[in-house]
Amino acid sequence: MDQGASLLTHPLMEYLPTQPHQRHDTLEANLDAIQREGGAHKYFGKIAAGYDAKREQTPKWVCEQRLIEGMLSDLPQGSVVLDCPVGTGRFLDFYKAKGLQFVGVDLSGDMLVQSALKLAPESDVEKWVAACNAKNTIMPFRVPGKGVLVNGDVRQLTGLPDKSVDASVMCRLTRWLSPDDCRLAMRELQRVTRKRIIWTARVANHPHARAVELFEQALGGWKIARNEAGHELDFRVLMAEPA
């Protein structure tokens, strides 16, 4: 049985997203509204469940995976990685294989469901979903000895103390953030991170391009140590370290 598909009708899908937007009476109406809104608020329900299958064999995905895993590969076992947005958990297998702890953060509870299904039996995920519904909030999903999935926003990482993680990953988000929000996100990542910040950005020739200079201006006491071409020259995978 396909685990993602089996949870599509679960009540968790009916009360998410938690971010402010107009609520409708049915799941189908909510999904239609979310898709019309676009941006980061569209990754719920069926879109979340089908996210990996639509992308994981594309050149962009394969290149991102290789570069980001390479930028994390020298971290010692037990290091803590903040993955925001964690999405469907595309890097979770890598974290587990390398013995890295993780804090996975996402605005979309439905994306967190997909990540949780990579970490635990479906029965455990269903119990968590039921508990979330009972309290009408998205509670952390904990995997003892490995990490935690939490609902949150990279622009305001409440609950994460200063310098509490060794590395941070922000993949495929900058195009959904305004320039000001990109600056907020980078400053928040610098606040919580000790060693390195890794992110992706389309830096030119696109309506949602975010220039490298934008990120450089947001770095205080940090510097860009790597700036690698992704599947296209204008799509970059960048890494910053303390200066």
CATH superfamily of the domain at 54-107 and 152-242: Vaccinia Virus protein VP39
Largest sheet: 8 strands, mixed
CATH topology term of the domain at 54-107 and 152-242: Rossmann fold
Q: What overall form do the CA principal axes indicate?
A: globular
Number of helices: 11
CATH architecture descriptor of the domain at 54-107 and 152-242: 3-Layer(aba) Sandwich
Global structural class: alpha/beta
Mean pLDDT: 83
Radius of gyration: 17 Å
Taking pLDDT < 50 over at least 5 consecutive residues as the criterion, the unreliable ranges are: 1-44
Instruction: Please count the beta strands (DSSP E, at least 2 residues each).
Output: 8
Structural commentary:
This protein has helices spanning 3-6, 12-15, 27-37, 45-49, 51-55, 59-72, 92-98, 109-117, 122-135, 179-192, 212-218; strands at residues 80-83, 101-106, 141-143, 147-151, 165-170, 193-202, 222-229, 235-242. The chain is globular. It has eleven helices and eight strands. Strands 3-4-2-1-5-6-8-7 form an eight-stranded mixed sheet. It is an alpha/beta fold and 243 residues long. Mean pLDDT is 83; it is low at 1-44.
